[in-house]
Write a structure and sequence with these properties.
This protein has 16 helices and no strands. With about 290 residues, the chain is mostly helical. Helix 7 crosses helix 16. Bound molecules: fe (ii) ion (2 copies).
Length: about 290
């Protein structure tokens, strides 16, 4: 990585506070989560327990009863879904939304991230894979796959702003502008560095590192391909929000590897904008406001 970018990230991206690091550690391996230890650690972590319950209840608005405790929330949606809700809440809280500079629009970026998770859900429905992929997991992956961009926004906002400025001024795709500014140390590389610094779980690291080059994934390859296609669909949607005409291609071979056709990709592309708007109407971000200690 460019020494300057690395030096600034090293200096300005804090270590995880011990309580958050403790929860992340407990969630590291989805197969060996100690439920009681997890609940104990969450109870020590500010209002996290309440926020997780709110997230479960938001997702279940139209279905059945509300969770009355953290234990109850786990019972209602399961440990895997709860794991993803917790990681999503924590990681979002580490990058509070702000609008410092004119060219990077955080609201549209949220639409892209949420859109990536929702596109992954729609792809799973089309491919008959819904049973295999927890929907909270797909939303979590969508919300955090571009954690490298969030790290740039937090530590190098002027550099991030410059990327979007160049894309607009030179009428080139955002990813091309990113390479012009950062060279080969793109947001995927920066994101992987963040995952390493914060000891984030391997499944998240794989999505963050490989969502633009899924063939390189060594673990969870199929879900990384799924997130790559979802990201590309949602990136095209994002470019359209920014009034750009650029469209990233989707490799047919990867599409076929999920048992999908290009016609089904078009169907998901058409459905996505309305899905994002509907999700934004339902989501209550105040209910998901975890008071992060830094
Ligand atoms: Fe990305
Ligand atoms: Fe993305």
């Amino acid at each position: 990585m460019s020494t300057v970018v690395l030096q600034v990230l090293e200096r300005d991206l804090p270590e995880l506070p011990p309580q958050i690091a403790g929860v992340v550690e407990e969630l590291k391996d989805p197969n060996v989560i100690n439920r009681d230890a997890l609940i104990r650690k969450i109870e020590e972590c500010g209002n996290l327990s309440e926020v997780v319950q709110n997230a479960v209840n938001l997702g279940r608005m139209r279905h059945g009863r509300r969770a009355r405790s953290l234990d109850d929330a786990i019972l209602l949606v399961g440990l895997e879904a709860t794991r993803h809700i917790i990681l999503s809440v924590l990681l979002q809280a580490l990058f509070p939304r702000r609008q410092l500079l004119e060219n990077f629009d955080r609201e549209n970026f949220l639409r892209h991230c949420l859109g990536t998770g929702l596109a992954a859900q729609l792809l799973c429905i089309e491919a008959g894979l819904s049973e295999q992929y927890d929907s909270y997991k797909l939303i979590n992956y969508g919300l955090i796959h571009d954690i490298g961009i969030l790290a740039l926004d937090r530590c190098l906002p002027v550099t991030l702003n410059r990327i979007f400025q160049i894309a607009t001024e030179e009428r080139i795709p955002i990813l091309q502008a990113e390479v012009k500014v950062l060279g080969r140390f793109t947001h995927s590389v920066i994101g992987e560095w963040v995952c390493g610094k914060w000891h984030l779980p391997a499944d998240i690291r794989s999505v963050v590192q490989h969502h633009h080059a899924p063939r390189r994934a060594e673990v969870n390859k199929q879900e990384t391909i799924l997130m790559h296609i979802a990201d590309t669909i949602s990136f095209n949607y994002y470019e359209s929000l920014l009034e750009s005409v650029h469209k990233y291609g989707i490799e047919e071979e990867l599409v076929r590897s999920l048992g999908l056709s290009m016609a089904q990709i078009s169907k998901v592309e058409e459905a996505l904008p309305e899905r994002v708007e509907r999700a934004l109407e339902i989501l209550d971000f105040k209910a998901l406001n975890f008071s992060c200690p830094f």
